[in-house]
Fold:
Amino acid sequence: MEDVGEACSEIQTVSSNVPESPNTELKKLLVFKVYKRRWFVLLVVCLLNCSNATIWLTFAPVADESAQYLNVTLNEINWLSLVYMVVAIPLSFGTSWMLDTFGLRITLILGSWLNMIGALLRSCGTLPMEGFKVQYPVVFMGQTLGALAQPLIIFTPTKLASLWFPEHQRTTANMIASMSNPLGVLLPNIISPLMVEKPAQIPGLLLAYAVPACFICFLATVGIRSSAPPTPPSAGAESSGSEPFIQGVKLLLRNKAYLILLLCFGSGIAVFTCFSTLLEQIMCVQGYTNDFAGVCGALFIVFGIVGAGALGLYVDKTKKFIEATKINMSFTALACIAFSVVCLMREQKVAMAAVCSLFGFFGFSIYPVAMELSVECSYPVGEATSAGLIFISGQIQSVLYIILLQALTTPLAESPLSTCGNSVLSWRVPMLVMAGLCSLFTCCFVIFFHTRYRRLEAEEQATYRTKQSTGSATNEH
Structure:
């Protein structure tokens, strides 16, 4: 009864004059309720997503100090971040199956515990105790546990939006949960350099990231009481994940529209990963400092979150998933082309900041809408399966793109303005290739992608049948 009392005003119901029917399935269709508790579940997912991202990139902004404190090379420090990508690809298949089979609650609680234990293990590995030597393998194991948690956390926004939110709030909920990850990417770029000015401050930094992970784990374990609300918020939620995992994968592989989205949007994720990973290396060649590169990275993320919020609200009201995705992908390709040109110029700080802001504004905004579009074009396949395979596609293409772009670099004989150190590379060809790949897959998506909104159609049909059944019941009485 407590859950029923939580029901918000957003209730779709029939006239109170309709008498009770013995048909329980009809009763489910007659009333769709939403619960205030959905906002708490969304909050936990956001905090967990943000915490996991901060653990991922803890060491990257303070790589030199971390290498000195842990007594390892910079390459070994880089592996503390790369392990996330290596672990995510094979584990993602199991995560999709787990979400659709065991549900949201078990997946989130397991992810929160792995995230917390990983954060605590990293902190224990760096404690300066008497007779205890700082151990890089212990820190690496903590990072690996965080990497194991990442797919369990990052796959949940689409599932959460479908199970807990009504159709007019789904894209917004997905956007809020998804954008908490880039926010988590931004935080260590600000917090880590502020807290670490010398190597001895590394243990304090790791402890600062471990405390929120413990609190979030407590919230998830105690606060999330069920995978779904007592009654579904929409007809789509009622049949969520109705296809078994293996059967769902087979359906996806036969779905032309989904395969186009899988390839083209996966390429978009790869381009953004390359941009985030290589930004500092690209900019230092033309004399831009690490601080300015950090500012550009921050603008990229902040404007991306703003763009995602605006587009999410628009699509929730209009349901124009395809139009919004195609238009924003086109603007993203133009921004990528602009970046590939401006990054090769010297002393263009204003232009560089503007291009990075536009790149993030249009590019990030596509993510939650495209994830919802993947569910619409593949329904009734489980949300975790359809969204998860796109994430896997993005990760695989990210690895290939980074390897390709780095292979295309050439050493520069001289670069008087360079702030890169001893190794100075030309990024002219790699940047043009990246812009070309982004433009190619955008054109393919704009020209060839067409689909029906299968989930919305199913919900409309369910509503129509409900009205017919209600009318019949009224006439009989």
Q: What stands out?
A: The longest strand covers residues 410-411. The domain at 243-459 is CATH 1.20.1250.20 (Growth Hormone; Chain: A;). The CA atoms of residues 166 and 234 lie 6 Å apart. Residues 349-378 form the longest helix (30 residues).
